[in-house]
Structure formats: structure tokens, C-alpha cells
Amino acid sequence: MTIRETMLALLKQSGDTFISGEEISKQLGVSRTAVWKHIEELRQEGYVFEAVRRAGYRLLSTPDVMIVEEVKVGLATQAFGQHVHYYTEIDSTQNRCQELAKEGAPEGTLVVADTQTGGKGRLGRVWHSPPGTSISMSLLLRPQLELQRCPQLTLLAAVAIVEAIRAIYEIPAEIKWPNDVLIDGKKICGILTELNAEADRINWLIIGMGINVNTLPEQFPEDVLGVATSLRIVKGEPLRRVPLIQEVLRRLEELYDLYVAEGFAQVRKRWEACAITIGKRVTIRTLHGSFTGVAEGIDDSGVLLVRKDDGELTNVYAADVEVHA
Question: pLDDT tens-digit profile of 68-100?
């Protein structure tokens, strides 16, 4: 860990107990002047400390910031998020993650931004992320998998996000196939997976995740206001973003390791347990037309199985899905 990461970990672990500047400097192997400088830098970023002569420092409050130190302190993963690149503003975390992938960044590298000016959604749509409200992050993977298995990784991300929201906030989030995360029928998260591969191997795969955490109704564009929501709207109070980032990364790494070791079967069960689509009447819209039927499940490759009104069981590989009430 860096000096600032270790310092924050010490201060958080001490809770309401003061920890002396001398003790901090001893554990970090730096001078007390250096400790003071780091404390002042953290104050500039919104951290509130109480400093008492001969007693030391204690941390009173932590701002809702997604800086590297916040993401990494207390992160319970082996690889995912252990290399973090944070930006207050960026065009797209996907674009930056692609650049890092080309430069040889390791698997698990995370790019996270407070706001994006050119966030991307599926089918070329724009993903809106007003400053201070959402999680915009992209995770770099270098899977040793057959090319045809890569679409399943998007389903893993959806499961990790839904399970994390349910665990932390006790909110009944659900998945609409393939990767929309909904609460009360309204979208709270989008997932975009982009792949760089050759005929015989995958160079890298990037999972982009945008989660509406503290977005207020008036911050949504008019064209999505009726179909989007945020955790703050649902809970009725502002929420810190870092705990959700950490829990999503922990669960996604767990699912990824399970998937690589045992295949899709166990992940499929967890996906179906989170899905709003299964067993419901749906309208499927593709580039070639639309039809209605009942969604019966997904197969071992993640393809949606829909029983059409004429009784035919159809595989749906890519489509917009409307779930009927």
C-alpha cells in the first residue's frame, strides 16, 4: 500500500481512538512533518480530522469520493481493483481502460471517474453521469477463455451488481436480460462489455459499469426520466459510493474465479435467481422484427430462451426486451 493508503487504514481502524503523529510516522516510516502534510492533503479532499496536542489525530468523517486510497482500503479482492486509476472527469472510462490495456496493464485494473463527458451505453447510446452522483467504472480482464464464452462475462457483472445492491442496501434489484439492472421496473445500472481479440486468443475484455447512486430526479435527462432511477431515490437518503464499488468488485471476482474453474452452470443459477425476465411474458425487438412470448430461462451460453406464442422455442442472442406486467 502507498503511504496515504496505509495512513487512511490506520485512522479508520482506530475508530474514535486518537492515534499519535509519532505512532503514524513510526508505522509509515516517514517523518512527522510528512504525516502532517498528508493529513492536510486529505483535508483538502474533504476528510475531517480532529487533532489534539499530545493525543494525535482521529478521523471524524469521510467524504463521498472514489479516490484510489478509498477504493483500496478495505478492498477484499486478490486482483480486481488492486490497480486503480481515478479521474474527477474523463471522456469515458472505457476509452481510458482500453489505453491501459494496450500499455500492458494487469488483469483487474480499474478505471473509475466521478463524471464522464462521453459515457457510452449499449447500441451507441449515451450514458449520463452528473458529477458526484454515480459510479462510472471499467474493469480490465484478460480471460484465458474461448472467444464464444465472452458474452457470459456480462451476465456475471449483472449478478455481482444485483447481489451487491441487495446485500448492502436491502433493495430488491433485478436483472432484465441480458444486463440491465432494474429496481421497481426502472433502470439503475447499465453494463457495456468491449472485446479485443484475435482469431485464436483474447487480448483483453473490458466491462464498463454505470450505476446511478445519488442521482436526483431533476438530474436525469427528460428522455430517460420515466425509465431511470437511483439508489438515493429508492432509499430516500444520500449514499456513499465506495462501499458499493468494493462489494461489486468482491462479488465479481468471486464469480469470475468460479466461472473460470467450473463453467457457467453455477453462475447461471445465480443469474436466474436475480432475473425479472424468467417466467414473464416479453416482447422481443431485434433488427429483423419483433415477437412476443414467455421467457423460459437462459442456456449454458447465456442465450435467452423464449417460447413464442405459436409454441416455438426460440434462442435470442441480441435484442431489446420488454417485460410485460
Answer: 999 999 999 999 999 999 999 999 999 999 999
pLDDT digits (tens, 9 = 90+) for 206-226: 999 999 999 999 999 888 888
Q: Domain coordinates of the chain in residue numbers?
A: 3-61, 68-274, 281-323
Rounded to two decimals, what is the model's pTM? 0.91
Give kind and range of the element (H or E) at residue 176. Answer: strand 174-176
Q: Which three cell numbers stand for residue 182?
A: 432494474
Q: Residues 305, 315: contact at Cβ < 8 Å?
A: yes
Instruction: Answer yes or no: are the C-beta atoms of 153 and 193 closer than 8 Å.
Output: yes
Cell of 45: 479532499
Q: Which residues pair with 116 in a beta bridge?
A: 90
User: Which residue intervals of the chain are DSSP H helices?
Assistant: 3-14, 21-28, 32-44, 68-72, 93-102, 151-169, 231-235, 242-262, 265-274
Angle at 27 between CA 22 and CA 29, to 5 degrees: 90
What would the CATH number be for the domain defined by 281-323? 2.30.30.100
The set of residues, in sequence order, having a beta carbon less than 8 Å from that of 33 and lying 6+ positions away, is none
The neighbour count for residue 55, using CB atoms within 10 Å, is 13
d(CA 16, CA 322) in angstroms, rounded, equals 50
H-state helical runs in 103-210:
151-169
Q: Which residues contact 232 (CB under 8 A, 6 or more apart)?
A: 213, 214, 215, 216, 238, 239
Tell me whether residue 246 is annotated as binding: no
187 is in an annotated binding site: yes
What span, in angstroms and rounded, lies between the C-alpha atoms of 313 and 277? 16
According to CATH, the topology of domain 68-274 is: BirA Bifunctional Protein; domain 2 (3.30.930)
